[in-house]
Amino acid sequence: MLKSLMVAKAKEELEQELEEKEEQKSQYLDEKSPPIHTSGLSLAELQKLCEELHAKIDVVDEERYDIEAKVLHNNREIKDLNIKVLDLRGKFKRPNLRRVRVSADAILRSLLGSKHKVSLDLRANLKSVKKEDTEKEKTVEVSDWRKNVEAMSGMEGRKKMFDAAKGPNQ
Asked: Which residues, 6 or more positions from 112, have their beta carbon under 8 angstroms from its beta carbon?
């Protein structure tokens, strides 16, 4: 329903616009070409009137030709510019960026300039850490799981688990 109302409204506006254009055209023609009164004119006066009308027609034709030439020139220029734009879009692709490895010294040199000699030894400032034998602590006796379940069953098994959680320090 809304669509049909919109179509009807657009149709009315189009008809109104056409009527306005016709009115403007008739007003323009009335202004530019007033009605000619040929009754009661002699042959010489009619010839003079025809010559004046031909001169006006020539002026109008020249203006029309000039305007058409300008329009054609502008249309060609627009087409050429559109073609250039399309060519430029097609030619220039964004290049894939490559990863560049730059050392810290090179970054500092580029930031501070080549006059300043600064060397960064990042590893010199690090603390040394002793590797503990964590593998020894992680090793657990691998045995049959059924034996382990039987050993841990009942109250004594719970006591063993409780004692193991406290640790060997106590």
From this structure: 118
